Amino acid sequence: MSKEKIQLSEALEDIMPSEYQEMVATATFGNEDRSWKDIGSSKELIEQHSLCAGCPESIAFRYILSSIPAPEDTVFVGSTGCTSLVFPMVGVQNIHSLFGNQNAVASGLKRALKVRFPDVNKDVIVLAGDGATVDIGLDMTMQSWFRQENFTTICFDNELYANTGGQESGLMQKGFVSKMAPMGKKFEKVRLPEIAFEAGCHYVACLTVSKPNRVEKAIRNAVYVAREFGPTYVQLYTPCILEIGKQSMEGLDEMKDAEAIGGRFVMKEFMTDEVKEFLKEKDAEQKARKKAAKAAVSA
Amino acid sequence: MEQYVVKPGPEAFLPPAAASMGIVLPDPGEAHYEGRIIDEEDAYEQIARKLLGAKVPTIFPGPLVLWKWNEKAGKKAEAIRELANALPARLIPMADYRPKYPKIDPEVEINPNHPNLTIWHNKIDACIFVGVHCHQANLALKIIRGGTDCFTIALCAQAGHEDACASFRDINVEKIKKLTETVKRLKSEGVESQALPFTQIKMTRAGRVA
Amino acid sequence: MNKKVEPKSNKILVSESVNLGEEGLKGQKVTDPNVMMFESEREPNFLTGSEVIKAAIKRANLDVMIAYPITPQSEAAALIGELFAEGYVREYFRGESEFAVMSQCAGAAFGGARVFTTTAGPGTLRAMENFPMWAGSRLPIQVCVTCRGINSPLSIQPDTLEMAYLLETGMLVWHAETAQDLYDWILGGFMVSEQPDVHLPLALCCDGFFVTHTKDTVMLQGEEMCLPRYDPYRSPVPCMDMECPPIRMMRDPFIMKSNYISYMTHASWQQEIHAAVERSRKHTLPIMNGSLIDTENVDREILIVASGTAVSQGREAIRLLEEEGIKVGLVKIKSIRPFPTEEVREATANAKTIFVPEFNIRGWLAREIKAILPNNERVIAGPHVAGGMTMPSEVIVEEIKKGLGIKSATMDRRG
What we know:
The structure holds three protein chains of three kinds.
Chain A: H1 18-26, H2 56-67, E1 74-77, H3 83-86, E2 94-95, H4 102-116, E3 123-129, H5 130-136, H6 138-146, E4 152-157, H7 192-198, E5 203-208, H8 212-228, E6 232-237, H9 251-259, E7 268-271, H10 273-298
Parallel strand pairs in A: 1-2, 1-3, 3-4, 4-6, 5-6
Antiparallel strand pairs in A: 5-7
Helix pairs in contact in A: 2-8, 4-6, 5-6
Chain B: E1 30-33, E2 36-39, H1 40-52, E3 57-61, H2 63-66, H3 71-86, E4 90-91, H4 115-122, E5 126-130, H5 134-147, E6 151-155, E7 166-168, H6 173-188, E8 203-204, E9 207-208
Parallel strand pairs in B: 3-4, 3-5, 5-6, 6-7
Antiparallel strand pairs in B: 1-2, 1-7, 8-9
Chain C: E1 29-30, H1 33-39, E2 42-48, H2 49-58, E3 62-67, H3 74-86, E4 89-94, H4 98-110, E5 115-119, H5 121-126, H6 130-136, E6 142-147, H7 161-166, E7 172-175, H8 179-193, E8 202-207, E9 215-221, E10 225-226, E11 250-251, H9 262-287, E12 293-296, E13 302-306, H10 309-323, E14 328-333, E15 335-337, H11 341-347, E16 353-358, H12 364-372, E17 379-384, H13 393-404
Parallel strand pairs in C: 1-10, 3-4, 3-5, 5-6, 6-8, 7-8, 13-14, 13-16, 16-17
Antiparallel strand pairs in C: 2-9, 7-15, 12-14
């Protein structure tokens, strides 16, 4: 939907809840160069959430929603879990249908939107937990990559099933003692970023959400590449502080530890040479746009 | 077995869906009143009288008219405002359908997941659903019938609502205006609005101002 | 409670926003479904059931078909691929399993597309989690179920047991007897399930092989016509394309997490799905010649009540019995959900004995009928065949004679 269509009917505008009036007035719809830096000066697309205090997932949500390039033409697909308690509160349409089928739903959705809007870039973004992405949904996750579907898959990796109370998952680290792994997990953390690249993803990034700049860049790269080339994958460490025995204020430290040298989440990116070139061009375009915008303001 | 009648409640712990009790929706050119099919032409006056006779008549506009996603929606919103002014009736928006945390403010909004809160809080005895997606409207209409004594009216742009006490189908700007004209005509004929005095809510970006 | 709906007009209600006469795919003309289904001239064609599915989809102005191989629907699914290659279907691909396919169908329907798929037997069961989700989400997807065996040991042969699992999903469930039913109901099915007051998925069932792999004469309209395109903005729920409000919208949110009387919201939601099934009655009447059942000589004391190809076998059994002077009437049940409760009650009001022949071992249709009839000791569940067995008319004759206490030559040595 173009930004112009996201407006209230004048005759009923003054009975609308304040948050919607604020959204229409200041949300960054239609601004391709929107950024996490707009947080605080513009209406965020996440209105409220019921996640635990200090949950890194909530900050990941805010970074992602503030940095996707075209929220006015984006549809998210989620899966069952903590994320699905946030999604009803998000100012971008989104789908939850079953647990684990998110990449199948996204495949059908993306193709339907291509059929119905052949001349518009409708971005489809999957955002699901690691249980949905890697365990119950792995078949459909990977098949959508094999088929070269044009959408981005984001996995919130908290290394366990959080919403059901902290059970072992495939992305859990080896040896970790949890529910359903009473003697510690017996096998290694599944190397999904490597598998994703091998399975046909054109851009893969794995990182924590401790640094908003990095998250923003990875998400934008993934969305742009999905439009032009094919599937992309971003794995974000969003530790479940509740289930790993941390306090509300310790999420950031946990992520910083995990991304330090030798940690499980040292940032890594995989992409083809073609994609590397493409992203360079995209960066140059963005810089030019920003420069022009600045010039316009000062002139 | 007696024919089911769609009347204001409180009806039951979990009232049935009217369609499952054999109530059939009107065809084009028809409306329904308490589950009986009536001529659309007759519905205007019956519904207008019901609204004028209510102490707290209230219109619940939904997303399809609150947002100007096309020209028609904006015009419908205007027609709804005119109807509210003519009656007079309160306007309380159903801005979206999400379960809201931690709770809604029942004075200024209605939510399809617990619409009875808004009905009870404001003592609404007659209400209009308009611009609400049919599925969400039906959820709310059944809950209202279950636990409140509110007379529900649906101005539906599609096939109508047998879960409302009365409903139009294929509603458009002209039909809303015709309902408003009917209200005005009845008033000019001496039918007085029984609405209790109230101030229309007014919101700004900063919060509620009236 | 299931009430009979009297037809007021035998017309399909068509959206005002549809542009009749505009171009569909490959130069087809978008035609009023009333003209297309009831008024236009038809020509006889000698086709298999699979080819008939293709013929219907060719005229369906279809957006998306997602395919997966499983006998006996593979041929139909592949033939629709040919239509895609020819340009008569807008999008088509093979999914990776029936569970994935039905989720892909859901995604396409959430995005506002008209969606068709086919499945059978174990595929239906593998996909099962999707069906109540489709219904709960009000997705008007049509799935053609070509029934086959589901239990171990594996059987690819005709068996209607899988239909029993579909009955409480909230989907519309129809049971075609012939290829002609299949053809007319595929096209009519879109018109019923896409009505804004219905807007539910349709499981259009037929008996595998008996319908899909045999040739029959089917009356088809010209190929120059097609149905109006699906209009997602008449949907009773918001379409997920970011083109309609509200944009702060999850399809569908966990209302169980709402703070107040949220459990009742879920109950109300479930009621609404089954209310929508009820609302489909009115819209189905024009598609099914004015009634959810067909009747022949129901003033007789002995009746056969059946669905699917068991009806055909019953009809032949009635002819054989007639030769012996035993008069039997017939009720063909076309729609299983909604169930034609009043219609069956009326049709069987005078019957002393009611036989329900079925192509499954459990007799789910007999159970449905027993549940709604007064004096249901009149209902004799059977005969039953399963696992791909045929049901010779003589077997029905024998069952009826046995039920009436008439001696007959046993068929048990026919194997």
